[in-house]
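Request: How about a record?
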Amino acid sequence: MSVGSPMVARLGLANFLRQSRGGRTAAQAAAVAGFSKATLSRVERGETSISPGDTQRLLQYYGVPDDVAETFIELAYAAKKPGWWQRYKAAMPDWFNLFVGVETAAHRIRTYEADLIPGLLQIPEYTRAIAEQDIPAPGSTAEIEEAVSLRQRRQEILTREDAPAQLSAVINEGTLRRRVGGPDVLRAQLEHLLATCEQDNIDLRVLPFAVGAHPASYGSFVLLDYTVVDTDYALAYVEYCGGAIYLEAEEEIALHSATFDGQQQRAASPEDTKELIKDALEQTG
């Protein structure tokens, strides 16, 4: 079974196990699987994987038909496979693993960025300038280059042959003016943005200063939409200094979706966005 990422396999299996348990207590289910109630709780939240054998025992206990159970036992195998991003340990904190794992399999990504160009649209020089500030001193050149390589690898989801992800991005006008890496890097970054505007799977819009107050004044966020075994899921991601918050509750997803829609409606049209980028280019000097 191909699910695009071991992380989404784990999450899809976690959701199915949680729903299938029904009215049975966590203690009863954990005893059947042969592990603690705390371990079952982590499994059902998608925080840790579960073996195919334990998956089979739980599904039998829950009364799941064999043909359905087989699909989710395959998910347990898929969840055990290493993700490509695991080789970038030096450049990726533990709390970012979930984001990259879901992003890799996402079919739609919606993001509002208040201060920087979205990572999926950054050129290497722009990323490098950020990494030089993000990595605690004394950061090595190798660590910085690994951070750049990771971000470039993540961008492959936009150009993959098999159903590239759809990216909808709204960026604050200030991101076009902030001279990350200096004027030459900013100029190259803005030229890259103009080029990405021509890709069919990318919808980039700038939120002009003239809009004034707006619903996302609290900061940036990302919405990731993905599918596991014909079931659609969404994850909202909000980053802060030293960590991130992941939101999956229906009401949280609805709130962030409505906020993003509002930002997109207030933003300049795709054509006007190009003009704003060109204006910023002219002012880089």
